[in-house]
Amino acid sequence: MSDSQGPLWEVFVQKKSGQPFVHCGNLHAYDKEMALQNARDLYTRRGEGMALWVVPSDAIVSSSPEDMGSFFEPANDKIFRHPTFYQIPDGVGHM
Amino acid sequence: METVNFENVFEAKLAKNDFIEPKDWMPENYRKHLIRQISQHAHSEIVGMLPEGNWISRAPSLRAKLVLLAKVQDEGGHGLYLYTAAESLGTSRDEMLDALLTGKAKYSSIFNYPTLSWADVGAIGWLVDGAAIMNQVMLQRSSYGPYSRAMVRICKEESFHQRQGYEIMTHLAFGTPAQKEMAQDALNRWWYPTLMMFGPPDRESPNSENALKWRIKRETNDELRQRFVNQTVIQAEYLGIEIPDKNLKWNEARKAYDFSEPDWSEFKNVIKGNGPCNKERLLARNKAHHEGEWVREAAAAYGKKLQENKIAA
Question: B130, B248, B297, B310: least CB-packed within 10 angstroms?
């Protein structure tokens, strides 16, 4: 007797056409079709989305929280990547 | 080389109101506390389907039946959000379900009371879901990310539950004298069990201190209970039915209602398994679980076959 629930899948919902797919939660299912149907029943009962992605959770690679500081460090001292770094004279319109 | 003190990092995150995520380091007791709280919360959603499910086949109209079906389906969904949130802490669905089905795990004491009339379905939506929302709104800011996110989704869905319940109460309260009597009777029976939902009084709440320290909870049981009473009095007044408490009185100095505490010995007794429906609820859950066994077995066999084909290919 096995009560296993099958692998875990992460669910992403697109709210409106053109918008990014946003992570909304996860669920268990044995295959893609089951995952998609379960995602529909569990996460879009009120028109929350018009498209769904389901991704096996073990296919997701994440940065490690302990290394957060050094991992993102290269971006910290490059303020010239931001538009506000630059001086633009008045009178040239919006830029 | 700099060594990282994980406990300091954890404390610093809490101090900044940052969230703790599954892969973050966390103290073992924080993890244990969350597994207990989130799995009990999930069990409450699942067992909570039973008292209302009792009325699906006898709902007084097709509209009422559709609404009740949708509500009970939502509760099932809430249970699923919460089970996977608990799983992210390292427990498994099998362990949690086993604890529920063998009676080891607890769930909200409120679901061990019977639904004797249609008015009870109204009272549950209005009072029980109202109390649950009060608690869950607070938990949206809980320090554990997956729990907090599940709460945000649940709160969005839960507001329909309370409103549909109050609508049932208005139909009864403004209906025939017999219907109004039903509404009053339901309020009489559900009032104190609902106040118990917020948990024991702060002076004797064993788990509160850690929950507040770790920002799993943001407010105490008594604070939430008081807010619930303050909010509900006007709703009962509108219905023209009476909250069964002779001591209920506005306290101008406190800007809050004074009210009687529920009978805490009854609360303890229900938690221990001696409420009116504890046995019935556990039997019903076990029956449903066993009747669904063939589905789980078939799905698992299919999953195994997929796995074998993948390896062979």
Answer: B310
- B160: amino acid identity, one letter: F
Instruction: Determine whether the interchain pair A8/B77 forms a contact, defined as Cβ–Cβ distance below 8 Å.
Output: no
Q: Is A30 in contact with B150 (Cβ distance < 8 A)? A: no
Is residue B19 within 8 A of residue B3, CB to CB? The reply is no
* Higher local confidence (pLDDT), B313 or B121: B121
Residue B252, number of CB atoms within 10 A of its CB: 7
Contact call for residues B40 and B216 (beta carbons, < 8 A): no
Q: Give the type of residue at B89.
A: L
What pLDDT digit, counting tens, does each position of B173-223 carry?
A: 999 999 999 999 999 999 999 999 999 999 988 777 889 999 999 999 999
DSSP B94-128: HHHHHHHHTT-S---GGGGS---SHHHHHHIIIII
Which 3-state string (H, E, C) describes B138-163?
HHCCCCEHHHHHHHHHHHHHHHHHHH
For B174, phi then psi, to 5°, come to: -105, 15
Q: Which of B126, B173, B26, B148 is nearest to B82 (CA)?
A: B148
Give dist(CA B272, CA B97) in Å, integer.
19
Point out the residue among B81, B293, B306 whose CB comes nearest to the CB of A25: B81
3-state SS record for chain A: CCCCCCCEEEEEEECCCCCCEEEEEEEECCCHHHHHHHHHHHHCCCCCCCEEEEEEHHHCCCCCHHHHHHHHHHHHCCHHHCHHHCCCCCCCCCC
Q: What is the pLDDT of residues A6-60, one digit of tens each?
A: 999 999 999 999 999 999 999 999 999 999 999 999 999 998 999 999 999 999 9
Assembly ipTM = 0.87
* Burial zone of A42 (CB within 10 Å; 0-12 exposed, 13-18 middle, 19+ buried): buried
Task: List the single residue in A3, A30, A45 with the smallest CB-CB distance to B303.
Answer: A30
Put simply, the answer to whether B153 touches A62 (Cβ < 8 Å) is: no
Is the Cβ–Cβ distance between B193 and B262 less than 8 Å?
A: yes
